[in-house]
Amino acid sequence: MSVDKIHPNSDPRCAVYPGTFDPPTLGHLDVIERAIRLFPQVIVGVFPSPRKVPLFSVRERVALLRSATVDLPHVTIKAFDGLLVDFVRREKAQVILRGIRAVSDMEYEFQMAMANRNLSGIETLFLMPGEAYTYVTATLVKEVARHGGDVSGMVPKAVLARLKKRMARPPRRPSPR
């Protein structure tokens, strides 16, 4: 693959960490904190996933991440839609960051990394969260919270408050057809 596809004004010191972040977890924050030790500028890209039914809107997830990263220097939170590589190019970054918790994540992430490199020449860097967060997924957080379990050790405080509030609402009923 040729690096000619990479934006000519891209900054090799800028990385994009994309995800749905529904909701943001302490594992996500751990990866962000690791990333800012490696890159002077980290852009967290929040995108809607058509394959998932989100608990929080993109706007809410951006606000939750901004709240959780307010004390982290050089971290920017932005929403995007469309191809990740197009977002990375617009942001003039050269690296995509992805968190890998377990070997089970690797097959999908490897496939996406290869596709992104083929489309754009942009490399993907995999970061592992700390051991305390290897089991934490946004899906797990939602499931535990739905059943009234304690997720305080899995999400930032601001997220915990919003999650409790959201879960206190009665479930939405499907509209009649």
List the helices and strands and how they pair.
Layout: E1 11-19, H1 26-38, E2 41-46, H2 58-68, E3 75-79, H3 84-90, E4 93-99, H4 103-120, E5 123-127, H5 138-146, H6 157-168
Parallel strand pairs: 1-2, 1-4, 2-3, 4-5
Overall description:
This protein is of the alpha/beta class. The protein has one domain (3-167): Rossmann fold (3-Layer(aba) Sandwich), CATH 3.40.50. Helix content is 40%, strand content 18%. Strands 3-2-1-4-5 form a 5-stranded parallel beta sheet, with helices on both faces. Helix 4 (103-120) links the parallel strand 4 and strand 5 (123-127). It is globular, with a radius of gyration of 17 Å.
Name its key features.
6 helices, Rossmann fold, 177 residues, five-stranded parallel sheet
Please describe the biggest sheet, giving its number of strands, its sense, and whether it closes into a barrel. Answer: 5 strands, parallel
Strand order of the largest sheet: 3-2-1-4-5
CATH homologous superfamily heading: HUPs
Secondary structure: number of strands: 5
Task: Please give the CATH class.
Answer: Alpha Beta
**Gyration radius, to the nearest Å?**
17 Å
Structural class: alpha/beta
- CATH topology name: Rossmann fold
Question: Count the helices. How many?
Answer: 6
What average pLDDT do the residues reach?
89
Task: Return the CATH architecture.
Answer: 3-Layer(aba) Sandwich
The best one-word shape is: globular
Helix content: 25-40%
